[in-house]
Amino acid sequence: MAAEIHSRPQSRRPVLLSKVEGHQDAVSAALLIPKEDGVITAGEDRTIRVWLKRDSGQYWPSIYHTMASPCSAMAYHHDSRRIFVGQDNGAIMEFHISEDFNKMNFVKTYPAHQNRVSAITFCLASEWLISTGHDKCISWMCTRSGSMLGRHYFTSWASCLQYDHESQHAFVGDYSGQITLLKLEQNTCSVITTLKGHEGSITSLWWDPVQRLLFSGASDHSIIMWDIGGRKGRTLLLQGHHDKVQAICYIQLTRQLVSCSADGGIAVWNMDISREEAPQWLESDSCQKCEQPFFWNIKQMWDTKTIGLRQHHCRKCGQAVCGKCSTKRSSYPIMGFEFQVRVCDSCFESIKDEDRTSLATFHEGKHNISHMSMDISRGLMVTCGSDRIVKIWDMTPVVGCSLATGFSSR
């Protein structure tokens, strides 16, 4: 069922501690149990499982519960031992887990959605269960009564959710690539703003209430940091993945962002430096370097009797340029470009060798990752995906939690 991986910590790399196997289909969510050597998993095979580490070092299921529909999302509140499991049929089921993690009792069913549940958040202070789904809505329900408090609909599938418990603001990412900021009230809500910057569907969100930063990952392989607390609305673009970004976690203590992509890529970004904002792309009817017309500029093509050129953009200055004026490629990590992108020839000359020094580390998870969560206090991470395998990682060699929290790598 489960196998222990014995590997020595290598400098500056995640250490694979354990592989947990047993699900018969894709694992939708996996969460580390705080202060325990245990993992809770939920899968498309309709099972919820609680795995505890035995004396042998292996993880074995102490709870195995079968649901009526595939499990698509999960939230766990450790202090109250309450677990909420979203399903493909739109329902969310609440359970209470015993102190010894050997028994799970059904509490109630919430008819939250008409379609697959994509994300769940539980707020103990207000006793609200907030969720998003493929029925294009966010819903919030009262966990005391089980009744629906409110719903808000979007134009696309709602794919991910973050919630600020203090201000009652919800961030919802959707399949159109838009993020909506909502203020939730007891029976109503108001749209504060919408954030547009991604060219693909939003796959993951992370909210840091301390610095008031929102991070979004998308199917366009990129991450955007939105400075919600800053008055300028600053955004930073991070490009270092080669597949859709499936999960992100910001470690406020060490100012690092951990991100995982569908191809198994694990990136750790240094956010404790002054980064540059990527420029807006400029529009022009002719190259802003050599002034040759672009192919849609019929008048200039006719006047100069030249064939129009294709338009490109320099990633460093944002100018509209032709191919001949942007023959070079360069990485520019301070602007978030960790691999080589198109830059105009003059910007290429301005980039020094030290400017190309990477501001992130990249690692190979060696399995499909569709979901990740971290126990920051212990420097542990769990990943899972369509390959049915759950992996538990010691991230302290790369995230520096040992320095920040006093946790030392085993």
Relevant terms:
410 residues; mainly beta; Methylamine Dehydrogenase, Chain H; Herpes Virus-1; 2 domains; five-stranded antiparallel beta sheet; four-stranded antiparallel beta sheet; globular; disordered N terminus; zinc; WD40_PAC1; WD repeat and FYVE domain-containing protein 1; WDFY1_FYVE; zinc-finger
Any chance you could write out the topology, listing elements then pairs?
Elements: E1 2-4, E2 15-21, E3 27-32, E4 38-43, E5 47-53, E6 59-66, E7 71-77, E8 82-87, E9 92-97, E10 104-110, E11 117-123, E12 128-133, E13 137-142, E14 148-153, E15 158-164, E16 169-174, E17 178-184, E18 189-196, E19 202-208, E20 213-218, E21 222-227, E22 235-239, E23 245-251, E24 256-261, E25 265-270, H1 298-304, E26 312-313, E27 320-321, E28 328-332, E29 337-343, H2 345-350, E30 360-364, E31 371-375, E32 380-384, E33 389-394, H3 396-399, H4 401-405
Antiparallel strand pairs: 1-2, 2-33, 3-4, 4-5, 5-6, 7-8, 8-9, 9-10, 11-12, 12-13, 13-14, 15-16, 16-17, 17-18, 19-20, 20-21, 21-22, 23-24, 24-25, 25-30, 26-27, 28-29, 31-32, 32-33
Subcellular location: Early endosome
Protein name: WD repeat and FYVE domain-containing protein 1
Domain FYVE-type: 281-352
